[in-house]
From TrEMBL:
Keywords: Coiled coil. Transmembrane segments: none annotated. Residues 1-10, 17-28 have a biased composition (Polar residues). It comes from Ceraceosorus bombacis. The keyword Zinc does not apply. Residues 120-147 form a coiled coil. Residues 1-28 are annotated as: Disordered. The keyword Nucleotide-binding does not apply. This is DinB-like domain.
Length: 237
């Protein structure tokens, strides 16, 4: 597990700490690029685990995957899963292989590429594709750790999360932006949470399934909930 430091906002006086209704003033902060990588990898795997746990339970089959939503017209569970997976897959496809990892050339990424995948109609294929995405993420960062001692001092200054990416987008004009692997991995995580949040009413209200409180909830919201719970407990002491 990564080591973290607790950062504090000095602008709030100690006597205001319990009475303030604002957002949390303390947060866990990764200390090194390696810890940032580990944190991003961990949250990515956890987010992919949310739909995987649901699909493995057998509560959602092919019929539920393809059933049109009455609450969110034009969508289905399968479509949401395919779209969130597409973004992970496109980013993973853009990552360097072991033979090209040392290249200084920026990576190329385009989320507008249309992928063909049967996962939106098949629960078993969705499980396989999401598990594959998890494994590819593990391998990408495991390769990074394995190369750690072999890299030169210059290369060591650029861990995978800091590797440059040229992001292409159709706006409808074709434009390019500079980014990094870390930023894009965080983006696909937030994009996935968005689709999981849209799946939540379909699962709970249309299918009557009971979901974990964390399903489709952003990490920042979970931190805020924990903060508010801690404040409520502290106020009773």
């Amino acid at each position: 597990m990564p080591n973290y430091t607790l950062t504090h906002n000095p602008s709030i006086a100690p006597d205001q700490a319990h009475s303030s209704a604002s957002a949390p003033t303390s947060s866990l902060e990764a200390c090194t690029p390696a810890e940032t990588q580990l944190s991003l990898l961990s949250v990515s795997l956890q987010i992919l685990d949310q739909p995987l746990t649901l699909l493995r339970s057998g509560q959602v089959g092919d019929k539920e995957m393809t059933r049109p939503s009455s609450l969110i017209p034009g969508s289905s569970l399968g479509r949401h899963l395919r779209h969130m997976h597409d973004h992970f897959r496109l980013l993973l496809d853009a990552l360097p292989s072991s033979s090209t990892r040392s290249s200084t050339q920026p990576l190329l990424l385009n989320y507008d590429v249309r992928l063909r995948s049967p996962l939106e109609e098949s629960a078993s294929k969705a499980i396989a594709e999401l598990e594959s995405a998890q494994q590819r993420l593990r391998e990408a960062f495991a390769m990074e750790e394995q190369r750690g001692e072999e890299r030169s001092a210059a290369a060591a200054a650029e861990p995978l999360v800091q590797k440059k990416i040229i992001l292409k987008a159709t706006t409808p004009m074709s434009v390019e932006f500079e980014s990094t692997v870390g930023r894009e991995l965080w983006f696909v995580c937030l994009h996935a949470i968005h689709h999981l949040a849209l799946m939540r009413p379909i699962l709970s209200q249309e299918l009557g399934l009971k979901l974990d409180a964390e399903f489709g909830v952003a990490p920042s919201t979970l931190v805020n909930r924990a903060w508010n719970t801690g404040r409520a407990i502290a106020s009773k002491l």
